[in-house]
Specification:
Elements (H helix, E strand, L loop, with lengths): L12 H5 L1 H4 L7 E4 L14 H4 L8 E4 L1
Parallel strand pairs: 1-2
Length: 64
């Protein structure tokens, strides 16, 4: 693959060793849900707590 005009950057060992100074990570639980079933609204007996798995709640909910 031609690399004409491109500069290849390599991460130095010292930068890799200091990565925890630049990036903070955190584990999160996420639930994503949508209701698009031929333009119908959900049934009245839909239990939203079951649909969203509230027995193991998420940190972030994305609903659309």
């Amino acid at each position: 693959m031609p690399t004409r005009g491109l500069i290849k950057h390599k991460r130095g060992k010292s930068e890799t060793m200091r990565i925890h100074y630049y990036i903070k990570t955190k584990d999160v639980r996420m639930t994503v849900g949508t209701w698009i079933v031929a333009g119908r609204i959900p049934d009245e007996d839909l239990e939203i707590d079951e649909w969203l798995c509230m027995d193991q709640p998420a940190d972030i909910y994305i609903l659309g």
